[in-house]
Request: fold
Amino acid sequence: MTKRPSPETLARFTAIVGEKGVLRDPIEQRPYLEEWRNLWHGKTPLILRPASTEEISRIMALAFETETAIVPQSGNTGLVGGQIPDPDGSEVVLSLDRMTRIIAVDAEDFSITVEAGATLASVQAAALEHDRLYPLSLASEGSCRIGGNLGSNAGGVNVIAYGNARDLCLGLEVVLADGRVLNQLRALRKDNTGYDLRNIFIGSEGTLGIISKAVLKLFPRPRRHDTAFIAVPSPDAAITLLSRFRQRANNSVVAFELIPEIAIAFVTRHMGVRSPLPQASPWFVLAEFADAAETAMEAALAEAIEEGLASDAAVAQNETQRLAFWELREKLSDSQKYEGGSIKHDVSVPVSRIPAFIAAAIPAVEHFMPGCRFMCFGHVGDGNLHFNVSQPVGMDKQAYLDRWPEMSRIVHDVVLAHGGSISAEHGIGQLKREDMRRIKSATELDLMRGLKRMLDPKGILNPGKVLPDP
Reply:
């Protein structure tokens, strides 16, 4: 059990970072204590904003000594409550938002070293300045930070070609629960010297250590993009189209997003964004090739329309049009806010099972909640769907959101029946913590708890997240 920090302990924390590194005022603290979906509201006596790994190390050494709970926070863009402290006000928040340096870009080695508080957008920009690409791409890239991306093993739209955050990381620096610093800031592609400690911390959501720096992979900057917004009759047709695209363009397919007709209605109604196609369609695909042969996309689309896999397509003629296509995709989540309550599911199934999953999940949820509206979209190129369900028109929002656990169990049962995962890229946090009991075997949970006890014996790192109580 952790302890509520005494005034003396809080004064000692403050001395480590100085007054400029502390937030006490409730108004200044508020952005750190509420998350985007407004599901969790935390309270803290102190927000610490260290400016260096040394300061994080000293904070954790003191926290270990005094048994003070520390909640690491990066950009506060997480969607499962993993970054929000407990409402009892006993946990101290440690924000990385002052540790934003781009330390080094090695264009020849295709790597970049950054502090964990650097925003994803700043890392992308630094790579482009050296004619390189950091391909992780999320709607929140202007505000999410590298520490959180790695802590949650973020995905995004380019996973089909480049992988998750885990696949894009070469090395880490991590501050442990007792203040020791694990320095593995190496840019090696191959290092077969024992256990892979780096991957223990990626995806651990701040429960095993605090990521302070990272070495990330870079790639050649694409010289051209071919981007199309495509009307398709069904998810089955979309998956077949994906297979055809990959056969024709090989590794040039970098994104393949499935979008339902209702999503177009939502963004048109609320976000001031128009569909690139004039006619309605049950489903759409936003696909992108990078550095493909000049006529590859046009040929693939012509073939798809001839075979009935697509009924129409708009191909971006310039960068402005390409960005407009992606703006529509990026505003899907925001548009749901204006339609009342939305119960969200970040799930994955094998790509080939996506049509069967959708066909089973929609009637199961409709039976439970007649009149609900399905915003099922996402990164079908890697099997990740955001199976979001908006409330029936006219229903009380809170009454609808109160049914979240019941609806999620129904959706997750269908996911598991199709060999999938209940968390594809958002993590576990608080939202899905209790679900771990039924999706993980006793052996898996025992090993995870063993790692937690070894790395955080006093339970001070992000308590109440990821692992359910024994």
Summary: The domain at 102-220 is CATH 3.30.465.10 (Uridine Diphospho-n-acetylenolpyruvylglucosamine Reductase; domain 3).
